[in-house]
Amino acid sequence: MMITKRIIDEKGIDQTEDTVLVLGYFDGLHKGHQALFEKAREIAAEQGLKIAVMTFPESPKLAFVRYQPELMLHLASPEDRMAQLESLGVDYLYLIDFTSHFAGNTARDFFEKYVSRLRAKAVVAGFDYHFGSDRKESHELRDYFNGKIVIVPSVNLDNRKISSTRIRETIAVGDMLKTQELLGYPLSTRGIVVHGNARGRTIGYPTANLAPLDRVLLPGDGVYVADVEHNGQRYRGMASVGKNVTFDGDELRFEVNIFDFSQDIYGDTIRIFWLDKIREMVKFDGIDSLIAQLQSDERIARSWTDYRNS
Known about the structure:
This protein is an alpha/beta fold.
């Protein structure tokens, strides 16, 4: 079981077991990150160490760049992130805010104040890892650490580095297949079922209107093939993100039509797994054309399979 501790500074670290320390922020825990933890598990097994991570609840960019709302959105909720870290073998997770004060630590400060207290006997970092206010690079770790150092090379897909930034780009355009390839698992979003306009019910396509539960990125506007998880059961459905332009809606809506499902679930939390994009959001010239399109969307969603696994 992973032990998680929120700390204010290095004095909050009370590590009693020797560790292999994995360095990074880890937004989304994509395939590139997973390679670091695979190496950490190998070292931990070889040397009888525990795996430790010290990272940040929010993006370090908040301390350096002009604020944009997108900076507060994550690829995974804090709960999902912690569950993923535990599944990757992390024994100890320390969370510290990336403040101006923390950012002021030089590379040597970081190792003397934090890494030493984390009882690190080995460190694992990505090839593009930077640390300290003096912006040292991963190849300079040896100047500050005498233990085992493993630098993991770039993990690529289609000759491009897998990164959180790249994944954010694929999410923005609604490319869920590429997003899943980069993450290694489907993007998902939790939402609380709330009351909407109930128009879908009148045309044979009732939807669960959702209020996002977490500060996570939603796919770009469109209609998607989705799996829906409710009370441990998984259903196929089709989900949409965007404004309901056919009815002159001007609010961003997030809703899902769950196939073969008729329960009232207001107030329940459900999880949407985004599988593939069907189409863009479009304005229809009448109810009949909207219904015809929804029927087509449903056929696509019901028959959809991931061709990469066939």
